[in-house]
Amino acid sequence: MTAALAIEPKRDDALDQSIARASGALRALAKGDGHWCFELEADATIPAEYVLMRHFRDEPIDHALEGKIAVYLRRIQGAHGGWPLFHEGAFDMSASVKAYFALKMIGDDRDAPHMKRAREAILAHGGAARTNVFTRALLALYGEIPWRGVPAMPVEIMLLPKWFPFHIDKISYWGRTVLVPLLVLQTLKPQAVNRLGVHIGELFATPPNEVKKWPTGAHQHPALVAMFGAIDRLLRAAEPLFPKGPRWRAIKAAEAFVTERLNGVDGLGAIFPAMVNSLLMYDVLGVPADDERVRLARESIERLLVIKEDEAYCQPCVSPVWDTALACHTLLEVGGEEEEARARAGLDWLAPLQVLDVKGDWAVQRPNVRPGGWAFQYANAYYPDVDDTAVVVTAMDRSYAGRSDRPYDERIARAREWVEGLQSKNGGWGAFDADNEYYYLNHIPFADHGALLDPPTSDVSARCVSMLAQLGDTIETSPRMKAGVDYLLAEQEPDGSWFGRWGMNYIYGTWSTLCALNAAGLKPEHRAMRRAVDWLVAIQNEDGGWGEDGDSYKLDYRGYEKAPSTASQTAWGVLTLMAAGEVGHPAVARGVAYLQANQDKDGLWKEERFTATGFPRVFYLRYHGYAKFFPLWALARYRNLERGNSKIVQTGL
Questions:
Q1: Is 62 among the catalytic positions?
Q2: How many helices, marked H, and strands, marked E, lie in the chain?
Q3: N or C: less crowded end of the chain, CB within 10 Å?
């Protein structure tokens, strides 16, 4: 039977077998200490930057590793000749320029067919002068463009008072950790060693020294662009006159910021761009190679590599807390002695990772709140994640529901206190900070990516509402719960969906929100629920699955655009409808049938398409774990509701 014809779930015993095979495969993928950590893949930019970082520093050339990275980069080259931001996506200039530069550095001949196709695609789209600000900074470090091609960001920013319109406390955690060491690099302007003498002048339609204007982000308002552009020109003209005393104080402040948050072998911010910038900052400041800070910064980058038999790439970060918490939820949904034991082993691994003793950057906005969250990565104490924390808490609470032995209650209470403390004034939650809504900053030249902030979003807010509801809050008794629900209801789109900031996209946002609204006590007949159900049923693909890709984030988006079905997005669709009380809906049956028909022999699902988001329109993610636990979660819930006494989902997620 093909997926297109599978419109009814297979019989009960076949469903049980599907669940058992998937559950066994997921359990087998746990690490020896109980946790899960799956690959986290982005686009070509991260492995390309890894190669260029090594040559920038004149590290010994690892021909075997570079050869494997080259295989990976060639494999993901798009049919259009360049490199996309997600599987089968459109040409992206910055990803293409970096991938071409890295392959040329590795040794690929510029006249090789794949390099020629890439060069032609880049020139056809206006040439390398049309790259984004982060790529321009890399090109300036390599001497490919003049530094005037990068927005002026003087390191004296570190000395600005908090009331100033621009301050590092006003931007997101990822912006902060990437920018602070980059300020030092932009000020001291080191040049790449580049021992091989590789350059990419052939990618410019206009010689770099003749380029007078660099592109801005599509989201940026022309009037604000003009205003901030004038400020940029003024800063550039005045910077040579800045006194040396304050400059060196600012450099020292930036160095101290990085060192305090260096985060051991997990790296600054536990994200690749910040790690690389911190390493290069120490280099330009003359910190010896055997200094522990340099050693840690370099090791943190190496730990992101995924090296296989025939190819290799570098991850943007790792996701063990997120993967483990979601895997635990999945196994708890499956149920059974072995599944529950494995889930508790995962939760036992998670428990000591709770951050209880570090007041991170979030405390600038909430100084009186005690720490109590979990980070996304193995360690990132200054930047715990609200979303991860809520998902861990709901799993911990669920794992001992109805039992007298509740070993996680103190941790749950402390996490709840922290999550409640980070609620924003509008009732929603951001991922890492509260009230990070300085939207004018997304129009400065440095913010052409449009992702400088961390405002409240529906998906994170929904997770927090789900957590509070599962812990016993109600709309009637909890002002925080009511504010959260009111925020979510106000965020519903005209077509009935919700925007998904961290997952792709409206399917993810709608899944997150309907789980929360159901947990909060809204009835299936509530208008918001009905509108969401109607939208989701209307966009189901003919094969019974659901799909959505990165094009849904474009600024002129006018409604759902058809995309191929994926296992994880189909699972979200099925879970969403069941959260709305629709376990008996034909669309649910068709979604379940799609998942059964597309299950592999190993019990899991293949998924090459990207279904998660780093920064809308700029950076997307492929969680290799999503196709391993979300489909199983959906199948198990379908079975449980179909055979249970209640057709209403009783948990927060």
A1: no
A2: 22, 5
A3: N
Q: Give the model confidence (pLDDT) of 391-412 as tens digits.
A: 999 999 999 987 878 899 999 9
298 and 177: one domain?
yes
- Report the C-alpha gap between 224 and 441 in whole angstroms: 10
Q: Could you give the angle at which helices 409-421 and 386-399 cross, rounded to 10 degrees?
A: 150
pLDDT at residue number 450:
66
Closest CA to 340 of 27, 19, 605, 16: 27
**Residues forming a β-bridge with 619:** 615
Relative to beta strand 305-307, strand 312-314 is antiparallel
Number of other residues whose CB lies within 10 A of the CB of residue 448: 25
Pairing of strands 312-314, 612-615: unpaired
Of 627, 628, 610, 563, the closest CA to residue 76 belongs to 610
CB 109 within 8 A of CB 60: no
Q: Which of 457, 453, 450 is nearest to 554 (CA)?
A: 450
C-alpha atoms less than 13 angstroms from C-alpha of 105 in its C-beta half-sphere: 29
- Give the pLDDT confidence score for residue 222 in this predicted structure: 73
CB 277 within 8 A of CB 284: no
Q: Are residues 589 and 621 in the same domain?
A: yes
Both 386 and 504 in one domain: the answer is: yes
Asked whether residue 433 is assigned to any structural domain, the reply reads: no
CA–CA distances in Å: residue 232 to residues 161, 177, 238, 593: 19, 22, 10, 57
- In the prediction, which pLDDT does 10 show? 61
For residue 254, what are the contacts with CB-CB under 8 A and spacing of at least 6?
Answer: 155, 158, 180, 181, 183, 184, 281
Range of the domain at 523: 14-26+30-38+317-422+457-644
**Which of 449, 490, 492 shows the shortest CA–CA distance to 613?**
449
> What's the rounded Cα separation, in Å, for the pair 134 and 93?
12
Q: Select from 314, 346, 362 the last residue of a domain.
A: 314
Can you list the residues of the chain whose pLDDT is less than 50? 1-5
Distance CA 415, CA 397 (A): 12
In 10 A of CB 227, how many CB atoms?
14
DSSP 8-state secondary structure symbol assigned to residue 83:
B
486: left (phi over 0), alpha (psi -120 to 50) or beta: alpha
CATH number for the domain harbouring residue 290: 1.50.10.20
The confidence score (pLDDT) of residue 1 equals 33
- Catalytic residue chosen out of the listed positions 266, 385, 387, 543: 387
Q: What residues does 615 pair with on adjacent strands?
A: 619
Are residue 98 and residue 147 in the same domain, yes or no? Answer: yes
- CA-wise closest residue to 25 among 474, 635, 586, 499: 635
Handedness of CA 26, 31, 33, 39 (dihedral sign): negative
- Phi then psi for residue 617, to 5 deg, are 75, 0
215 within 8 A of 182, measured Cβ to Cβ: no
The model's pLDDT over 524-560, given as tens digits with 9 standing for 90+, comes to: 999 999 999 999 999 999 999 999 999 999 888 888 9
